[in-house]
C-alpha cells in the first residue's frame, strides 16, 4: 500500500475533482445550486447505469477461454482458417444464461439455458449462438414473440402464468419434443459446467471445391452431465439464486478449468433434399445413427472477466457472425434470428455495439460506418465515408462472394402444419428415459399442468398420449383425469 500511486479523481471530461464529499450549496444549510457540475454528472450517469436488459437471456454468466482444433481432416468440409490445422488456437468468450427469467431471477429456474460462444478468429468473429438443448419449441420466427410472452408475466397480474404457457403449448403441438426436455431433469441443469451446448440450428460449411455441407454443432461437457431435481432446484432458488454464476466463477478462479469436446454432425447438401426429416426443422434432431458426431476440437474456459458489465452485460452475440468457409441454411428460425439479433443489440447497446471491446474482432475492421450514439473511437478520421471512392478506401474482394444457393417454390405463407409429425421424436425421447427419470418428468409436468383450466389440460394430454400412450396415461393419472374417457372422446 505504501507504494500505491493514488490518481486524482476527475469528471468524465477530465476536470480534476477537489471535493467529492459535499454538494455545492448556498451556505452550509442552503439549497444545492444549479452549477454543481459534479453532482449532476454523477446523478445523470447513475440514472443511466442500467441499459435495457435483454428481452430473453437477461441473466447470464461469462468467461474467456480458447478453442483448440484437433481434427486434421476439417479441410474436407470447410476453408475456415480456425480449423486449418491441428493445434490451431482461437481465443473465445462464452456467455451462459437462463432464457425466460429477468436479470434478477434465479439460476436454477426450469428453463432452457443459453450457450453463446464468440470465437475471435483471424478472419473475424464467429458467434455460435445456441442453447443447452438441440431443439426448440417452435420452428417459425413469426411465433417467437408470442411464445416468449407466455414465458414472461401475465399482463394483468404481472405473475408467471402456467395457464398462458400450457395454453400455447397445447395449441402448438410442435413444442412437445422441447416440452419433454424442459420438464425432464435437463430442465434444471446443475450449474453451467455440467451441461452440453448445441447450435440447435442447422448451419453449413463450404470447402475449397465450393461443396456445401449442412452441420449441427455440439459442445459435450467433459465435466459430466449433472442436473438438479425439482426439489433441489426449488431449494437452491432460496439458498443461492446465483448458484450457477458462483460455481462457474469459482471453478475458473481456482484453476478447475471447464472443458467441452466440440463436435459436429455433417449432412451432405444432396441429402437434405431427400432426408425423411426436414433437416431445417428446429423442433427435430438428426438421429446420430444417420449422422454420427465428428469431433472437431476442444473448448477450455480459463479466465474470468474483470468487469461484469463491460464484458458480460455488453457482450452481443448474433448468429449472422460467421467466417469464410461457413454459411447459413434455410432454417426458418435461423433466418429470423439473422435479422432480430443485431436489431436487438442496436436497441439495447446502440448502433456502435460491435465496436465495444468485448465484441470487437481481433482481426482488422474496415467499414464505412460512421457516427451514431456513443461513437468512442476516431470515427474514421478524415477518411472517406462512402464507397466507391478515389481515396484508397477499403474495397470489395470477389474472393469472398457468398456461394450461390439455388431455391425453388412459390412465395407464400406455407403451412408448416403439413409436416405434422410432432410426436415420434418426443415419444422416442420418453421411451429412452429410465424409470426414475420418467417418474420425475411426470411429477414435474403434473406439478405445473395441474394449475391450468381443464380444457387446456385435456388438449395437452392428447399430445402426450399420441407421443406414447404411457406418457399420456401417466400425466393424466397424476392430475386426476381419466385418459380412457378423454381419448375416446377425442
From TrEMBL:
List of catalytic residues: 57, 131
GO cellular component: cytoplasm
Residue span of region Disordered: 1-26
Catalytic activity: 2 H2O2 = O2 + 2 H2O
Listed cofactors: heme
GO molecular function, one term: catalase activity
Gene3D superfamilies noted in UniProt: Catalase core domain
All copies of domain Catalase core, residue ranges: 10-395
PROSITE patterns xrefs: CATALASE_2 (PS00438), CATALASE_3 (PS51402)
Alphabetically ordered keywords of this record: Heme, Hydrogen peroxide, Iron, Metal-binding, Oxidoreductase, Peroxidase
Key word Acetylation present: no
Alphabetical GO biological process terms: hydrogen peroxide catabolic process; response to hydrogen peroxide
Entry's EC annotation: 1.11.1.6
InterPro entries: Catalase (IPR018028), Catalase_3 (IPR040333), Catalase_AS (IPR024708), Catalase_clade1/3 (IPR024711), Catalase_core (IPR011614), Catalase_immune_responsive (IPR010582), Catalase_sf (IPR020835)
Keyword Membrane: no
Residue sites binding heme per the record: 341
Broad enzyme group: oxidoreductase
Any one Pfam family match given in the protein's UniProt record, by short name: Catalase-rel
PANTHER family per record: CATALASE
Similarity field: Belongs to the catalase family.
The name this protein goes by in its record: catalase
